[in-house]
Amino acid sequence: MLLATYGTFRKGQKLSDYLEHLREHGSSEVMEITGLKLFVVGMAPGAKITNNPNDKAVIELIEADISDEEIQDTLEVLDRVEGVAYGLYERNSIDTPRGKALIYTKCGDMNECVKITDWMEWQKKGEAEKRKAMSKAGELAIYV
User: 3-20, pLDDT tens digit by residue?
Assistant: First the structure.
């Protein structure tokens, strides 16, 4: 299984435990890839696949050697957490240096959201800096 994660599922983030079994049965690597735009959507990250080489994002690429049954179980959990049935996120695939990887992308318009490159770097910003960026993007009402 090859999975690209860019936000709250990355190692050390609040949902990373959901993927720890994958990391234990394989490897993970943080890398920058092209063709993906990241956004701050309220207080969570979202991504859109653009296939534009000028769009860059930092991801954690997890490669795990697990059974088909374990893959299915993992995807069912991720689909629930990501709200796939409710149209919050959708499961897609994206090209990476190691091949096609599964990735969850945000549904809907993100034109007024803050564009970022790395969720971990966004997390390090102070509250005042985040509010200023979100206010300029027209998203402050969602964040406050």
Answer: 999 999 999 999 999 999
